[in-house]
Amino acid sequence: MRWDATREYLRGSLWAIPTACVAGALLLGMLLSQVDVSPTSPLAFQGTADDARGLLSGITGTMITVIAVVLGLAVVALQLSSTQFSPRLLRNFLRDRSNQVVLGVFVGTFAYSAGGLFTVGVASGERSDEFPRFAVSVAIALLFLSLALLVFFADHLAHSLQVDSIMRVVEHSALPVICGDVFSDEGETPAPPEWAVSVTGRRSGYIQAVDFRHLLHAAVQQHATVRLRVHVGEHVVAGTVMAWAWKASAEEAPPSSRSMSVAVEHAVRIGFERTLEQDLGLGFRQLADPACKALSPAVNDPYTAVQAIDHLAVLFGALAARPVGDHVARDAEGTVRLIVPGRRFAEILTITVGLIRRYGAAEPNVVSALLRLLAICAVLAIEDPGRWSDIERQAQLLVTDAESAVRQAADLAPVYAHAEALDRVLRDRRARLSGLDQPTG
After folding, report:
1. Residue 70 and residue 266: Cα distance in Å, rounded?
2. How much is the pTM?
3. What H or E segment, with its residue span, contains residue 245?
4. For the segment 43-97, what is each residue's pLDDT rounded down to a tens digit?
5. DSSP states along 292-306
6. Residue 2 burial by CB count (10 A; 0-12/13-18/19+): exposed, middle or buried?
7. Domain ranges of the chain
8. CATH architecture for residues 197-271
């Protein structure tokens, strides 16, 4: 879990790749300084030692300016993304590998050129006409590479600030979590009995990930059942109950509180922010936020909200097509040993659709987009009447709120049309399920 936490942190750090590039550039400079080429070679720098030092000094000063410009543009992009869309989208920009590589090449070029000033035209503290000509030629090549990457960075930054690009990144990042096999049991799970031992948390923060194997191994060793109180993505406070552990009956010796506390502390990773590793609801939250912000009176941009709903429809389509819920693990004998709560389909639907509905009920286009989202869920949903009822309940709330908020009855025509289309889909699916349930012959 510690390695996973470090890897997740490094993926969202702007300094990790640039630091590695600086070390690689200095090492490359040391190696190329040993390469001796003839002054007449086309790969050799044709100027004098003073010309080479002047060139390296000019590249060093140029790269400092370029790095300052790039960092300034990055800060502006972060500010725009935070204020216009959502602060929870900042981590997607920081995790952009293209930005990290571009910044790494820039600082690497600076380090390579600055390091060369210690060897070019100087030997034992005195002037020297001998210098690594091939290494200086590589500095020129790095300068042209940096120039090309500067143009690429400007183009990439302009595209990455577009709302469609931002939402597409969120969609592609959240889909693997939804389609994974982390949480897949929507049935009833055993509740902790009265004799269960409470395990309190030692840190405050958000649950980022759970090491299921480690926690299951600890439970099996104690011949106990462990149930976490909170799901991944939820905030916990130090000193509150994190989990319960219990054995089959009150007559048995209770599981070791100390051992279970150590196991939970090592298996449950707590951080200062939510991450997408196992957090099923974060992607939905990242798309619902810009939709709500676009519907605020200060922005009044309902089309951006519709775009966010379109991307949410992709996520809900994937979610509706698979079972989600608690993670339940059993031992070799089939006894439940580990229960990790997960978000249910109805919960995510209520939080996401309900949040946008309360802000956008007065805009028929937004309500229609939400009804289309529910229709997609109805078409792709697994054969579960309970899930269909959840979809139908949200559709009724949408129509009711729209009727209360929209003044002109004519504006509600598309809302009624989409609601009727959704109702037909639900009736058709229920009819087909009823037909399959009928005895044959």
Report:
1. 40
2. 0.85
3. strand 241-246
4. 788 888 888 889 999 999 999 999 998 888 888 877 877 777 777 777 777 788 8
5. HHHTSTTT--HHHHH
6. exposed
7. 7-161, 197-271, 281-323+344-437
8. Alpha-Beta Complex (3.90)
